[in-house]
Design a protein that fits this description.
Helix Hairpins; cytoplasm; binds 3-methyl-2-oxobutanoic acid; amino-acid biosynthesis; binds acetyl coenzyme *A; TIM Barrel; 8-stranded parallel β-barrel; elongated; alpha/beta; branched-chain amino acid biosynthesis
């Protein structure tokens, strides 16, 4: 075969940028954020949001702290137009929030856009036309010079109408996007952008936004960063511009492209919640904001209740957030695997003890900071280890298994979970523990126990069921437990001694009971744990001895 599919494709040329600066830079502050959920996110939905869904989403975005929100493409439909009117006429736009609207370089559409914005306090009018070779060739059928004319005409039509808005008290900022910037030759992107600047005449006091979109990811994020740095270095009147990023995720690197673009000199970032948007989506703003947060940089957006935000998003857009989605997915703070659970459990315990800088293995941030719960962090299936089992019993029921007992019960639980072939709940693990230890009453079950003594010598008398038949045993020792051990050995149980003892309370007040753990050692060296629960602490220990005896018999 002389032609294979791979020959259909070609590499993307690199940018000639000697001495590029961005790789050595470090992010130290949040960008100006602009949400495009209600426009780019919305235009990508099979069923675009209706006015009430857009209103709900708008309010959620305001609550997150967005100060610039692209609310739509008002010349696209009645819904989009009416939404602007509702926002403005009902006074729903907070004083510190600016709404932004997108429009093509077409006069009728620009006119309609301006009409939709009348009466607003502060707006950004966002003009775009595509500039890449493929768009020039196929969409417009134009050479570069005519593409520049499309942009300049559009800029002029907007300029002609701004006065109307400003005269009625609206503050207007202008934004231009050479759409498909990342697939455009940088020299031409500069030429067309500067032609628009010539019309709008931005100054350092009255800047315009130059948005440089990665409309379709055609190269790696480093190439995008080079393009942004190239523009920042070469465009005229840089000080009169707010350089803005707008990335998509076709190669799965929208977040990386944005972060590298910020390093390359951008001031502003457009994106959506959870990355909704055309094809593979827009930049997920939550990811970049939380990435800043995890480095101790205030992201200036509030995602402290990400679950509630996710609910609004899912209800309004009909989209879902995948379980592995960074920060917001259901499983992103969850460990099923044993070694991860072990490390997280130890890390959380150390953090809770000292509350210093966050340093918990496998968890980039404290899940509680975004409204997640520690109970989601460790979940148990057949890949889990003793640490996970112990964590769930402790966090859900306050049962603190001694370390040695964890080693014994871990494999028992693992076998049971493996046989079930699914995840198990903390309640199921507790039931397994109860079955294995607490309810272990064959051959011996305690009916009655009494011990008393003075000067270090205790005598005990106990009634037991041995395989259902009642028996009496008596013994002597330096405490009630030792006396009971001696009683059992006298009765004929192979010689054993108590090797380990721990007890704790379970619950509180009138519901409180004692939970005892006892490890016995037989004459042949075999070790075995038992556990017992009773409202009487002495009886809990005696039951724990019997549990261990029953488990070795
Ligand atoms: C990358 C982005 O996300 S850009 C934003 C895209 N968003 C949307 O398109 C959503 C809203 N859009 C719409 O509702 C409609 O497309 C409208 C109202 C804007 C325009 O609708 P229509 O005029 O019916 O048709 P359509 O969208 O197909 O227009 C294509 C025409 O506009 C031209 N065109 C496309 N973009 C632009 C632009 N930015 N500036 C000027 N002309 C443009 C095309 O060359 C084409 O011209 P032709 O008819 O001479 O071939
Ligand atoms: C209009 C522009 C900014 C856009 O949405 C894109 O390029 O993806």
């Amino acid at each position: 075969m002389s032609f294979s599919p791979i020959q259909k494709y070609r590499p993307f040329p690199s940018i000639d940028l000697p001495n590029r600066q961005w790789p050595a830079r470090v992010l130290t502050q949040a960008p100006i954020w602009c949400s495009v959920d209600l426009r780019d996110g919305n235009q990508a939905l099979a069923v675009p949001m209706n006015v009430s869904q857009k209103l709900e989403m708008f309010e959620a975005l305001v609550k997150c702290g967005f100060k610039e929100i692209e609310v739509g493409f008002p010349s696209a439909s009645n819904t989009e137009f009416s939404f602007n009117r509702r926002l403005i006429e009902d006074g729903r736009i907070p004083d510190d929030v600016t709404i932004q609207c997108l429009v093509q370089a077409r006069e009728d559409l620009i006119e309609k856009t301006v009409q939709s914005l009348m009466g607003a306090r502060s707006v950004i009018i966002h003009l775009y036309n595509s500039t890449s070779p493929a768009q020039r060739r196929y969409v417009f059928g134009m050479e570069k010079a005519d593409i520049v004319k499309v942009a300049v005409r559009g800029a002029q039509w907007i300029k002609d109408r701004i006065k109307r808005l400003e005269d009625s008290g609206t503050k207007v900022m202008l934004q231009y996007s050479p759409e498909s910037f990342s697939a455009t030759e940088v020299e031409f992107a500069k030429e067309v952008s500067e032609a628009v600047m010539d019309v709008w005449q931005p100054t350092p006091e009255r800047k315009m936004i130059l948005n440089l979109p990665d409309t379709v990811e055609v190269a790696g994020p480093n190439v995008y960063a080079d393009q942004i740095e190239w523009m920042c270095r070469n465009i005229k009147n840089r000080e009169s511009l707010i350089i803005s990023l707008h990335t998509h995720n076709d190669r799965g690197t929208g977040t990386a492209a944005t972060e590298m673009g910020m390093l390359a000199g951008a001031d502003r970032v457009e994106g959506t919640l959870f990355g909704n948007g055309e094809r593979t989506g827009n930049l997920d703003v939550v990811q970049v904001a939380m990435n800043l947060y995890m480095h101790g940089i205030d992201p200036k957006l509030d995602f402290s209740d990400l679950n509630a935000l996710r609910e609004v998003y899912e209800r309004c857009t009909g989209m879902t957030v995948p379980p592995r989605h960074p920060y917001s997915g259901e499983l992103v703070f969850t460990a099923f695997s044993g070694s991860h659970q072990d490390a997280i459990k130890k890390g959380l315990a150390a953090y809770e003890g000292h509350q210093g800088a966050w340093d918990v293995p496998y968890l980039t941030i404290d899940p509680q900071d975004i409204g997640r719960e520690y109970r989601e962090v460790i979940r148990v299936n057949s890949q889990s280890g003793k640490g996970g089992v112990a964590y769930l019993l402790e966090s859900e029921f306050g049962i603190e298994l001694p370390k040695e007992l964890q080693r014994e019960f871990g494999p028992i639980a693992n076998d049971a979970v493996d046989a079930l072939g699914r995840e198990v709940s903390a309640a199921e693990l507790k039931a397994m523990f109860w079955k294995e230890y607490i309810e272990r009453n064959q051959p011996y079950e305690l009916k009655h126990f009494h011990a008393d003594g003075t000067t270090g010598v205790f005598r005990c008398r106990a009634s037991l069921y041995e395989n259902g038949r009642e028996i009496q045993v008596t013994g002597e020792g330096n405490g009630p437990i030792a006396a009971f051990v001696q009683a059992m050995v006298s009765h004929g149980v192979p010689t054993f001694e108590v090797a380990n003892y721990r007890e704790q309370s379970l619950g509180s007040g009138s519901e409180a009971s004692a939970l005892s753990f006892i490890q016995v050692k037989r004459a042949d060296g075999k070790m075995c744990w038992g556990a017992g629960v009773d409202t009487n602490i002495e009886l809990a220990s005696i039951k724990a001895v019997l549990s261990a005896v029953n488990r070795t018999t």
